[in-house]
Amino acid sequence: NLAQEVTEIMLFELFTQVGPVERVSMPRADGDSQSTVHKGFGFVQFAHGEVNSAEHSVLYAMKVMNDIRLFDRYLTVRRSNAGSGGARTQMRRPPVAPNQWVNPHVLH
């Protein structure tokens, strides 16, 4: 339920408050990675930090960021079903090869 004003940089900065963010992804409405129109959702992938694991960051994000208001819309934060190997929430950064997105600790 992300407003079109929300950018990947905004999500990166917002979710950095709960843990080390590895990457952010916001799928584009027309499938064109250069498009400014996104589908209204995204993925945030957490990295393992010096203090907390990626899994801890995911659980903390679900607890703290759920129902945060951003551009008059409330965020829904939950674990994603995709991947195996790290931690991720539903939100993008620059495009990478698909195999680099595989992560077990994922939110959406």
Q: Which helices and strands appear, and what pairs or packs with what?
A:
Elements: H1 8-15, E1 21-25, E2 43-46, H2 54-65, E3 69-70, E4 73-74, E5 87-89, E6 105-106
Parallel strand pairs: 5-6
Antiparallel strand pairs: 1-2, 2-5, 3-4
Tell me what portion of residues adopts beta-strand conformation: 15-25%
Mean of residue pLDDT values: 77
Q: Strand order within the widest sheet?
A: 1-2-5-6
Low-confidence stretches: 84-88, 90-106
**Count of helix runs:** 2
- What is the percent of helical residues? 10-25%
Instruction: Report the count of strand segments.
Output: 6
Largest sheet: 4 strands, mixed
Order of helices and strands: HEEHEEEE
Q: What is the general shape?
A: globular
Radius of gyration: 13 Å
Structural class: alpha+beta
- Give the CA-CA distance, first to last residue: 11 Å
Task: Walk me through this protein's architecture.
Mean pLDDT is 77; it is low at 84-88 and 90-106. By secondary structure, this protein is α+β, with helices and mostly antiparallel strands. The protein starts with 7 loop residues before the first helix and ends with a strand. The strands form 2 sheets. Strands 1-2-5-6 form a 4-stranded mixed β-sheet, covered by helices on one side. Strands 3-4 form a two-stranded antiparallel ribbon. Helix content is 19%, strand content 17%.
